[in-house]
Amino acid sequence: MSHTYVTTAELSERIKYDVRTIRNQLKDSVLLEGIHYFRPFGGRKILYIWDRIEKDMLKAPSINTLMAGIK
Protein backbone atom coordinates (compact mmCIF):
# COMPACT_ATOMS: atom_id res chain seq x y z
CA MET A 1 0.00 0.00 0.00
CA SER A 2 1.28 3.41 -0.92
CA HIS A 3 0.89 6.24 1.59
CA THR A 4 1.38 9.98 1.36
CA TYR A 5 3.57 11.22 4.20
CA VAL A 6 3.45 14.87 5.25
CA THR A 7 5.29 16.97 7.80
CA THR A 8 3.53 18.92 10.54
CA ALA A 9 3.72 22.11 8.44
CA GLU A 10 2.25 20.35 5.39
CA LEU A 11 -0.52 18.82 7.50
CA SER A 12 -1.25 22.27 8.90
CA GLU A 13 -1.77 23.58 5.38
CA ARG A 14 -4.05 20.68 4.43
CA ILE A 15 -6.35 20.72 7.46
CA LYS A 16 -6.17 24.48 8.16
CA TYR A 17 -5.01 24.12 11.78
CA ASP A 18 -2.03 25.94 13.22
CA VAL A 19 1.14 23.87 13.60
CA ARG A 20 1.08 24.52 17.36
CA THR A 21 -2.49 23.24 17.61
CA ILE A 22 -1.48 20.01 15.87
CA ARG A 23 1.50 19.54 18.17
CA ASN A 24 -0.16 20.59 21.43
CA GLN A 25 -3.79 19.51 21.11
CA LEU A 26 -4.26 16.99 18.31
CA LYS A 27 -1.10 14.87 18.54
CA ASP A 28 -1.58 11.92 20.91
CA SER A 29 -5.25 12.70 21.58
CA VAL A 30 -6.79 12.67 18.09
CA LEU A 31 -3.76 11.80 15.98
CA LEU A 32 -2.22 8.63 17.38
CA GLU A 33 1.32 7.36 16.94
CA GLY A 34 1.40 4.19 14.86
CA ILE A 35 -1.97 5.00 13.28
CA HIS A 36 -1.81 8.61 12.08
CA TYR A 37 1.90 9.34 12.42
CA PHE A 38 5.28 7.75 13.02
CA ARG A 39 8.87 8.68 13.70
CA PRO A 40 11.01 7.34 10.85
CA PHE A 41 14.18 5.56 11.89
CA GLY A 42 13.37 6.16 15.57
CA GLY A 43 14.24 9.85 15.27
CA ARG A 44 12.61 13.03 16.47
CA LYS A 45 11.04 13.99 13.16
CA ILE A 46 7.36 13.16 12.80
CA LEU A 47 5.71 12.18 9.53
CA TYR A 48 1.93 12.07 9.32
CA ILE A 49 0.12 9.51 7.16
CA TRP A 50 -2.22 11.70 5.16
CA ASP A 51 -4.62 9.04 3.83
CA ARG A 52 -5.36 7.73 7.34
CA ILE A 53 -5.95 11.23 8.70
CA GLU A 54 -8.20 12.12 5.77
CA LYS A 55 -10.16 8.87 6.18
CA ASP A 56 -10.78 9.56 9.88
CA MET A 57 -11.73 13.20 9.24
CA LEU A 58 -14.36 12.16 6.72
CA LYS A 59 -15.77 9.37 8.89
CA ALA A 60 -19.15 10.22 10.40
CA PRO A 61 -19.17 9.98 14.19
CA SER A 62 -20.85 6.87 15.59
CA ILE A 63 -23.81 7.08 17.93
CA ASN A 64 -21.54 5.81 20.73
CA THR A 65 -19.18 8.75 20.20
CA LEU A 66 -22.06 11.21 20.22
CA MET A 67 -23.64 9.65 23.33
CA ALA A 68 -20.34 9.65 25.25
CA GLY A 69 -20.69 13.37 25.90
CA ILE A 70 -24.20 12.94 27.29
CA LYS A 71 -23.43 10.40 30.03
Description:
- The protein is mostly helical.
- It has one domain (5-68): Multidrug-efflux Transporter Regulator, Chain: A, Domain 2 (Orthogonal Bundle).
- Helices cover 44% and strands 10% of the residues.
- It contains 4 helices and 3 strands; from the N terminus they run E-H-H-E-E-H-H.
- The chain has helices spanning 8-15, 19-26, 50-58, 63-68; strands at residues 5-6, 37-38, 47-49.
- It has a 3-stranded antiparallel sheet with strand order 1-3-2.
- It is globular.
- The mean pLDDT is 88.
Question: Which characteristics define this entry?
Answer:
about 10% strand, mainly alpha, Multidrug-efflux Transporter Regulator, Chain: A, Domain 2, about 70 residues
For the record, the CATH class is Mainly Alpha
Beta strands, count: 3
- String of helices and strands: EHHEEHH
Number of helices: 4
Structural class: mainly alpha
Distance linking N and C termini: 39 Å
Question: Any idea of the CATH topology?
Answer: Multidrug-efflux Transporter Regulator, Chain: A, Domain 2
Instruction: Indicate the proportion of strand residues.
Output: 5-15%
Q: Share of helix among residues?
A: 40-55%
Structural shape:
globular
Overall pLDDT level: 88
Q: At CATH's second level, what is the architecture?
A: Orthogonal Bundle
Biggest sheet details: 3 strands, antiparallel
Total domain modules? 1
Rounded to an integer, what's the Rg over CA atoms?
A: 13 Å
Uncertain parts? none
Strand order of the biggest β-sheet: 1-3-2
